[in-house]
Amino acid sequence: MTDSSALEGQRERARAAAAVLVTGVVDALGGSASRTTGRVEGCESASEDEFRTFRYTATGRVDVGASASPPFLDALVPVLEAAGFADPIPGERPGGNTLEGSDGDLTATLSELPGQGAYVLLSVEGPCLEVPEADRRDWQRRTDPEPFL
Amino acid sequence: MEVVPLSVGVASQRWDDQHLDLDAAAGQVGGAGTDGFTRAVSGAASRFLTQWQRHAETLGTDSEARADGLRVVIQDYVSSDEAAGIDLFLLSTYVTEQR
Amino acid sequence: MTTITLPPQPRPVPLLTCQPGAVRDCGGDLLAASAQIDDLGTFVAGDARIGDWTGRGSERYHETIAPIGRRADSMSLALRSVATRVDAHADELQRLLDRRTDLEERRSHLAGEVARLRGEIATATEDDAAALQAECDRVRREVEAYETDLTTWSSDLAAEETAMVQAFQRVQEAEAVERIWGGVVDPADAALATKPGSGASPGEVSTWWDSLTYVQQQAIITAAPGAIGNLDGIPAGTRNAANTVALDRDLANWTHTESLGVLTEDERTWLENARAADEARRNIADRVDPVTGEPIETQVYLYDPAAFDGDGAIAISAGNLDTADNVAVVVPGFGTDAESAGYQADRAATIYESTRYLDPDASNATMFWIGYDAPDNAPWDEGFDGAGVATESMATAGGEHLADTIDGLRESRDGEPAHLTAVGHSYGSTTTGHAAHDQGMEVDEIVFVGSPGVGGDTNDAGDTGIDPEHVWAGANSRDPIADLGNHGWVHGETLFGAGLGDDPAEDDFGGNRFEAESETRGGAFSFGDHSKYFDHDTESLYNISQIVNGNYDAVEHADHVYDPWHDGVQDPEHDRDPTTPATR
């Protein structure tokens, strides 16, 4: 079990990395970023009203510029690498494609869904961490509405 | 002297509840944020909210006055020589404001 | 040398700094406050009148309160009108922001076109002149069209701002409120007079609601949110609007009373339930749709903080219940009451995310439903003996509520009916079983997970009234609650006293069993494994989501539990290595 400071640290690092990535995606594809927020999410349930482990997930959306042409992820490998997420791996998700890289214990995922629109989704998250039992309710109730960018 | 039934005491408490609720509503209006409006609108929004906080507080004060007024009626009645009956003890419990 | 005329540079789009969400919140606060003022008017016309008090004192009192009632009525109508205007203003600001984004993209594109043409002209020959001028003319026309749209946008913004400012100023002073709204009849009054009585079917309620004008509907949402917020047959979007008014008002009232130190015991319980509902709606709204990246829409479908002797009733949806292709209603079990709403909201949001992730082309809504009085005696708190105290009576009563809720969801939707799934977890599966067997609940799929039994009268999947092909069960081999149900010829209630009916994961039951093992399962029975069915990247969430989406071929089936006469209960899943299919 870790103390809650590890999850606090994960939050800080995920938000900072996500801010760099969103900026890089806009630089590479043009357009504008929105919904640049994050949240603490429960991972493994412990009972009918609480989680045992939590992780932080930062997310954002970039509506790409009119001059960008699909597939958008092709242009984003350097963006991930420049942000410290080395050797990004292309993958698939239902209805779309992904590009995933790791930096230490953080994982960044970029995805596009061609059938849905001209935008790229981004998420940066850490591993699930166990927090002290006394802190579970606080983490579960925590909100984080302030945009990271 | 006219008989003051127990229902007068119950009504006084309900007026107190209205006072509490309207004070809460006043706080809600006063606490409503104007940050989301454009600069062209936020000033008018702020003035409106300030004014309406006062309107709601006034309604709350009026409600409290009605509760206080009923308590005076009860006090006068239970203190009089003409008061009698089994409800007298219960009625006297309403003389003091509960909340 | 031919002169080529370049198109003009497009004007930049002015900044628009605003937050429609914050504006909408402001409107919500005003609406809740107007509901409170409306309550004062209702009070003066009703409970404030003291019928058994006679004499001069009584006359004076009633003369004094009448003007307060009239003032409250006019003030509530005035404040409601401004609140409604603020809400519309938020919508218009969002539209203006969206239009600004489009204009900005067009300007950027056109600026690039002008720069390109300037470069081409610099190196052009006489032979290129005609074609280049034609290209310049084309871009000029595009710039002119852009300029026209930009001017329209600017004037629309100015008109909207002026209208909003006027709405604020129009009823700022008490005298203006009285002049404009004094004596105006609340449109809610006549509409509520025609409302069907208690016991009306969701269909009758729906017909009544549809017969009202838009103005009447909006008036009822504010003036009498309690009259429709929890009424089956009212559309989910409307119930959400009414319950949001009621919830915001309750939070403001009881928090204020708490701050004065005069909260009663009952009010403290209700306030805790209201706070749980608030936490739940925020938990969902803070998360994002995995397909669009936008916040997940939230609907408060049921809000009654005083229900079930203070346990409370709350149901909140992730997604739009009125329009979603696929709707799932999750029925929790042992140990849940309104205070569990925050966690249950996380579950609903997780299922929503998973269903959307797995089928981006379908729209979804998932609602947690704490709409019945569930047993408080959870086995993990009190052991099997405690669970044994639980009987089917609460599930029977809860099943009736659940079937009514499903009827209401069906009846209040326009257009295509939803593909509707009831997901019963733990004791909630017993409740779901009763809703199906006793009440003929009209769902397309029934999913039982971690079930201690689906009710004594439901001996096999066919007894649910649903085609057994659409009856599903998920049971983790380490979940001791899922092992409580009756097996084969040995009935569980004789061993544990639970008596909640048959195990839906068993071969004799005749439903579909899907894989539901967890990678973090223990070596033996563990209560922890009873709660993992809805966690991300688990077999159970993946399969539940495929069922909710109607993608039956993608469901990973599991071999049933069986109970040979010569040996104990056998679970073929016990020795299979669990997998972690992606759900996000």
UniProtKB/TrEMBL annotation, chain A:
Source taxon at top rank: Bacteria
Name of the protein described by the UniProt record: Uncharacterized protein
Taxonomic lineage from the root: Bacteria, Bacillati, Actinomycetota, Actinomycetes, Propionibacteriales
From TrEMBL, chain B:
Domain of life: Bacteria
Record's protein name: Uncharacterized protein
Organism, scientific name: Nocardioides psychrotolerans
From TrEMBL, chain C:
Record's keyword annotation contains Glycoprotein: no
Stretches for region Disordered: 563-584
Domain DUF1023, chain residue ranges per copy: 311-484
Compositional bias per record (Basic and acidic residues), positions renumbered to this chain: 563-578
A Pfam family annotated for this UniProt entry: Abhydrolase_8
Residues forming coiled coils: 86-149
A GO term, aspect molecular function: hydrolase activity
Key words, A-Z: Coiled coil, Hydrolase
Protein name: Alpha/beta hydrolase
Organism: Nocardioides psychrotolerans
